[in-house]
Design a protein that fits this description.
Structural class: alpha/beta
CATH class of the largest domain: Alpha Beta
Distance between the termini: 67 Å
CATH topology of the largest domain: Rossmann fold
Shape: elongated
CATH superfamily of the largest domain: P-loop containing nucleotide triphosphate hydrolases
CATH architecture of the largest domain: 3-Layer(aba) Sandwich
Strand order of the largest sheet: 7-6-15-14-13-8-12-11-9-10
Number of helices: 24
Number of domains: 4
Number of strands: 18
Helix content: 40-55%
């Protein structure tokens, strides 16, 4: 771009003022840009002659002119610091030569000795060098931008790095680079990203590095100077309404304006992670909006933590919504059970894996379970099992509860989505994480992203910790079927609107596409009912409209009087029988045990924690100590503070869940 601008400026200067008066005028006009160097040369000659007339007999003038010559040369060298080394050296040599000749001419005369020859030959040579430089600069052979780029690379520790074929696109600069052989590697480039961002005054997330897989010293910088995601993009409507789930799901935009799409059949299983306020729920809504407009997919949702609070308007469109712990546990068991049943059906119909044709009535003889001809069996829709706030399920059911599902469901037409605020090795087993090949990572804290995003994506510049919960909806997505160069590109999910607008959009999708969404196939339904029983077969009623409030009974005057008196009774005395006789003075009453002191209570708490360490799941929380509160002689708030104190002392380790701590060996006595 810089060379193009210089060429255009040069051409404008050549064409300005030109006419059609003949070849002589044209030549003069073309020569005009090159005349300044010759004019300066002539000026130096005239100045030398004039100086000789004034100071030919003055020794002090010789001293002054010599000092001026040295000072002018030094000033030129100093002033050239901001330019390239070639321009700086060329300017200093020109000034030194001109000022030296001027000093000699002033003292001995411009026509003395070799001075006339030096003026003619040396002056012409210097003028021509500036003309040549001007021609090369106007043709793009040299730009100050290249010099400044080299200076920037030196500052950030990437000296001698070559930049090639810079491409400038709208809000994007693509710069291929080649590191000096044997001196730097792509790892050095990754470490330099924060310094490059500082030098360019942009956030670190604005710079990405695409490493050349065939080279350890080649790659491409991608610089996005302006954050185009600051303004959220409203949900534009379904991407492929009424089409197959094989069509990718559009859920947002990248920072270059291109669509953020998830090819679910390539992704298969996915981890969705983001801290509170990062926009993880908004991204989930975008995915549900897409899923519920397709013709060959059914959706199961487990949300025992919030009872479906964020998805209420969409619940009527879901095949099964498990909104309490028993139902969520039953759903996990059902997913495990339907996998072999679905796999057997696909095998019997000659499908190696689920494909859109499997969701249609089987009229193709090549996909028939009959010995001859088409079997015309009803199709089997794709199944998405979404585990929202999965940390609770993992605590209740164990960290490997999803491992079998993730490993076995690949060819059964089942996708598992595990959504949680903070994934770690203490919550999700490494086998399960390895079986979730796709990931969407919203803003997180610290280095939590390392559990969701591959190392090479983080090295390329992805940094969701820079957002935290300050950039709602910002996300990195990694999935098969997505260009790997986009893995480190920030994106932002669509905004479904403020309260009231979201409900309208959700209601429209539920109603408008009710005839598009398929019913659950009988094979999957039978397998789920076998293990989940009434929790599955009665699933619609369990999440239906709330029951109408029962009208208050009409009380008699005597009953109303009793109610008013009962309202005055303290809760702790509610179980006492006011008509019972008082015990006799001789009767002995067992006094309550004395409340343990603080130190005694802490010792008891330590004992309880050690006991849980030996038999429990590896974590401890206030709720786990509920049965022992009376024995400790303290309430839940005291126990909560003590667990926090133990964590600060290093005897317990905090987890991603509030109030839940991981037991460490020293405390467990192992």
């Amino acid at each position: 771009m810089a060379s193009k601008d210089l060429s255009q400026q040069h051409e404008d200067r050549l064409n300005s003022g030109s006419g059609t008066a003949g070849i002589g005028t044209w030549l003069v006009h073309r020569a005009k840009p090159f005349t300044p160097a010759w004019i300066v040369t002539g000026g130096v000659g005239a100045a030398g002659a004039g100086a000789h007339v004034m100071w030919a007999e003055s020794p002090w003038a010789g001293v002054g002119l010599t000092l001026a010559s040295v000072g002018l040369t030094a000033a030129t060298w100093w002033a050239g610091k901001s330019t390239g080394p070639q321009r700086r050296l060329h300017s200093a040599i020109t000034v030194a030569a001109g000022s030296s000749w001027l000093t000699a001419a002033a003292l001995s005369g411009p026509l003395t000795g070799p001075l006339p020859d030096l003026f003619v030959m040396g002056g012409a040579t210097l003028a021509l060098t500036w003309n040549i430089r001007q021609v090369m600069r106007s043709s793009g052979a040299e730009t100050t931008g290249a010099d400044s780029d080299k200076g920037l690379l030196e500052k950030v520790g990437l000296a001698r790095t070559k930049l090639r074929d810079v491409r400038v696109e709208p809000n994007r600069v693509i710069v291929p680079f080649e590191l000096p052989a044997g001196e730097l590697t792509n790892e050095d480039v990754t470490k330099a990203i924060p310094r490059i961002a500082s030098a360019l005054d942009v956030p670190t997330t604005a710079i990405r590095v695409q490493h050349d897989p065939d080279s350890a010293r080649k790659g491409t910088f991608v610089i996005v100077p302006e954050d185009m995601l600051k303004t959220p993009t409203m949900y534009p409507g379904p991407f492929a309404p009424g089409q197959s789930i094989a069509v990718p799901l559009r859920i947002g935009v990248y920072d270059d304006g291109s669509d953020l799409v998830l090819p679910l059949l390539d992704a298969i299983h996915m981890l969705v992670m983001g801290m509170t306020g990062s926009g993880k729920t908004e991204g989930a809504l975008d995915l549900f909006f897409e899923l519920l407009t397709r013709k060959d997919v059914t959706v199961w949702l487990a949300d025992a933590a919030k009872a479906g609070q964020d998805f209420q308007p969409l619940l009527p469109a879901l095949d099964w919504a498990a909104l309490d712990t028993p139902s969520a546990g039953a759903m996990v068991a059902a997913v495990q059970a339907v996998i072999p049943a679905r796999t057997a059906w696909l095998r019997d119909h000659a499908y190696r894996a689920w494909e859109p044709a499997a969701a249609e009535t089987q009229t193709d003889p090549t996909h028939s379970c009959a010995t001859s001809g088409a079997c015309r069996c009803p199709g089997m829709p794709y199944l998405v099992a979404w585990m929202e706030e999965a940390a609770k399920l993992l605590r209740d059911l164990g960290d490997d509860v999803f491992t079998g599902i993730a490993q076995e469901a690949r060819s059964a037409g089942v996708s598992l989505v595990v959504s949680m605020q903070r994934a770690s090795g203490y919550q999700l087993s490494t086998d399960t994480r390895a079986s979730l090949p796709a990931a969407m990572c919203f803003g997180v804290r610290g280095d939590d992203a390392s559990f969701a995003l591959p190392e090479e994506v983080l090295e390329a510049g992805a940094n969701p910790a820079a957002w935290g919960n300050k950039r709602k909806g910002y996300v990195y997505m990694v999935s098969a079927g997505v260009d790997e160069d986009l893995y480190a590109n920030p994106a932002r999910t669509f905004w479904t609107g403020p309260s009231g607008e979201y409900e309208k959009a959700a209601g429209w999708i539920v109603q408008q596409f009710a005839g598009v969404r398929p019913a659950l196939d009988s094979v999957t339904a039978a397998a789920a009912a076998k293990v989940a029983g009434d929790l599955f077969t009665n699933r619609a009623a369990r999440v239906g409209a709330p029951l109408a409030p029962t009208p208050a009974p009409q009380l008699t005057e005597e009953q109303e009087s009793v109610r008013e008196v009962a309202a005055l009774v303290d809760a702790e005395d509610a179980e006492l029988d006011a008509t019972a006789e008082l015990p006799s003075p001789e009767a002995t009453t067992e006094l309550p045990a004395a409340k343990p002191s603080t130190e005694e209570a802490r010792e008891l708490l330590d004992d309880m924690v050690r006991m849980l360490a030996s038999v429990g799941p590896g974590t401890v929380a206030v709720r786990d100590l509920g049965p022992y509160l009376e024995q400790i002689g303290r309430d839940r708030s005291w126990v909560s503070k003590e667990l926090k104190r133990l964590s600060e002392e290093g005897r317990l380790a905090a987890t991603g869940e509030a109030g839940v701590y991981r037991l460490i060996p020293s405390l467990a006595g192992v």
